[in-house]
Amino acid sequence: MLVIVGYVIVMGSVFGGFAMAGGHLAALWQPLELLMIGGGALGAFFVGNSMGVMKATFKDLPSILKGPKYSKDSYMELMALLYELLTKVRKEGLMSIEGDVEKPEESPIFSKYPKIVADHHVVEFITDYLRIMVSGNLNAMEIENLMDVELETHHHEAMISSHVIAKLADGLPAFGIVAAVMGVVHTMESVSLPPAELGMLIAHALVGTFLGILLAYGFVGPLAGLLEQKAEEGGKMFQTIKITLLANLNGYAPAMAVEFGRKALGSTERPGFAELEEHVKQKR
Questions:
Q1: CA 87 vs CA 118, 144, 164: distances in Å
Q2: Cβ(110)–Cβ(81) under 8 Å?
Q3: Percent of the chain at pLDDT above 70?
Q4: In sequence order, which residues have a C-beta less than 8 Å from that of residue 222 and are 6 or more positions away?
């Protein structure tokens, strides 16, 4: 929603200011300039990216119209789930969660937390490292190194779409210049026309530069920043899981391990200590 509001403000400010200064909005409507800029940028997008990258970008773009992927409630469910799993391990041993890890969709513990179960990547991350803990072949330091590698890979993949859109935005002003130069070429080959018509052709050419810059910094560029923020937000869920599981591996009780995870959250998503404790009690 904020994206649409932002676009309306951009268009209202730019075009409104132009009209208030006495400019004619009809002069800015140049479909052929848009064709050259948009078509050139789209072609460069296809040339510069693999099919997998393009699919990932198109998949991520709809998320710009949605709110944060993970809310405060999602993190509270996550920490309640981890607390329950780690408490079961503390009371009954690591082998007691083998069934929960192997088939989380059938686990009575996981079934209490539908928001977490609905996220395949989060469930996979939790169960993979609990499975490693059950096997007992790796120590806490080795598991932490493995988590860091996986999180780095996850972060790199999540940032792909923002990098692609940023590069696209960087190229739009150049394509605007290309369109403007093409307009100037057309003007120069029409020097026999009356001055008034030549002035119109030059104005049309300059619109290309204007549109390229406007599209880059007013529309496409901000999308790259927004996609980057969403990638960072998504990574926080995995960081919370990592910190909680490692705290437990280092000997801390489930309640304290969950507290470590809670401290990793930002101020807008972090529940209070008492609030989280009450939520955990309700789920048990």
A1: 23, 21, 43
A2: yes
A3: 97
A4: 6
Do the beta carbons of residue 134 and residue 89 sit within 8 Å?
no
Cα–Cα distance for residue pair 96/219, rounded to 1 Å: 53
Rounded to whole angstroms, what are the CA distances from 227 to 16, 61, 74, 223, 234?
28, 8, 20, 6, 11
SS3 string of 111-153?
A: HHCHHHHCCHHHHHHHHHHHHHHHHCCCCHHHHHHHHHHHHHH
* Residue extents of the structural domains in the chain: 1-284
Which pTM value belongs to this model? 0.80
In whole angstroms, give the CA distance from residue 171 to residue 209. 12
Region 157-181: mean pLDDT is 91
* Residue 215 exposed, middle or buried by CB count within 10 Å (0-12, 13-18, 19+): buried
The identity of residue 134, as a single letter, is V
Other Cβ atoms less than 10 A from the Cβ of 276: the count is: 21
> Considering the chain, what is the average pLDDT of its residues?
86
What are phi and psi for residue 109, nearest 5 degrees?
Answer: -75, -50
Q: How far apart are CA 146 and CA 31, in angstroms?
A: 52
